[in-house]
Predict the structure.
Amino acid sequence: MQNTTLDTLTLVVRGGTVVSGQDVIRADIGVAGGRIVALADGLPPAPEEIDATGQIVMPGGVDVHAHIEQVSATGLMTADDWESATSAAALGGTTTVLAFAAQHRGMKLSKVVEDYARRAAAGAVIDYGFHLMIGNPDAPTLDIELPALIEAGHRSVKVFMTYDRLSVSDEHILDILEIARRHGALVCVHAENHGMIAWMSRKLLAAGKTAPKYHAHAHPRLSEVEAVRRVIDLARLAEAAVSIFHVSTREGVAAIRAALGDGAEVHAETCPQYLFLGPEDLDKPGLEGAKWMCSPPPRGPRDRDALWKGLERGDLQILSSDHAPYAHDETGKLKHGPESSFKQIANGVPGIGARLVLAFDALAHDGARGLVQFARITAANPARIYGMAPAKGVITIGADADLVLWDPERRRTLRDADVADRTGYTPYAGRTVRGWPHTVLRRGAVIVRDGALCAAAGSGRMVARSL
Ligand code: URP
Ligand code: ZN
Ligand code: ZN
């Protein structure tokens, strides 16, 4: 380390237990120009000092799956805008998010991206990027716009295998995989078999089974595993990498594990709703269960075990939120009134603020291994897989100073009244977690101090990405 570097430190985070890559070390972190420039014990004083004694210093969370200020598959706008969603993210320890620029049928992709980018630039308090969601795979989109947008730095593309208004045929998925391979992007997939879901839904509705709990029956576990296997084979044919979103079943994990064993380039995530919730959560009086409705639905205890094991073994590399925020009222979940069937209720649960506290509680009290595992699945792996490393996801010299100070012993019970997003509820209400992120830095600037947000709307920046 050069003395000249030490002379220019603007901030030192002092005396914390730092989770840096594979290591857990006691070190001070020196920051200059928004980047980490020194990592050592006994750094000299800087104009700004943060005392991290007794605290765990983690890399800022990287959430690569969130629906923000976005029109959903059923045509509904999310409850959150960029400011509210990213404020909730920051308060929960997340400093980078990838959301969607959602092209629906008939839309021009470049115009969609322009529009989403403008709104993100005005509202975001954390750094961000976009997955290009393709719902209109016509010739201009595939031949001209998609390649150009990938080359311009939007290094991931999202496709749905289900939902009437957004699903894309296998043939178009192959086109998209090939374009992504040629131009340097990763294709992310919502993998569920559309026909199975439509068929099950029709039968359930015909039998008068309309309550939210039947949403779980309408999305049989086979619908996930069939689609996971199929899209992995499509990716093989196109010789492209693929990323499977929100894996929920043990069969899904097994299919991904088998493909990895065969040398396929497959990445996969799961989300808190599949690790901490179950189908019983949807089984509430009236339409209360709508709060827990997401696709795929939460499964059973053996699936939860398999997902944890998959994360530990690396079959699944990422824990994302799939934050899909809709209030439990007529603006969101209950848009179609008190008699809505499960088919009329918006899919999705909020989780951008809860993702990290739930994971920290589950993983970080188990010594260095758990701390490293937490940092790996919530920050390092998502940043690397989606082309944001080395700037994002790790505490290392040269990286952005995106840092989170966790009080490992602070206990808090999650409550609807405390959520910072605009849904007004948390699916995890009543759960007590141990460990809380109280101070958050984004590129060296404090954006959450002692649990209070202190970042201006629009201070987040689009992240440069390369694959
Ligand atoms: O239920 C969910 N996950 N809603 C959001 C859209 C999606 O499928 O990812
Ligand atoms: Zn999805
Ligand atoms: Zn999603």
User: Anything to note?
Assistant: The radius of gyration is 21 Å. The chain has two domains: 3-59+392-453, 61-360.
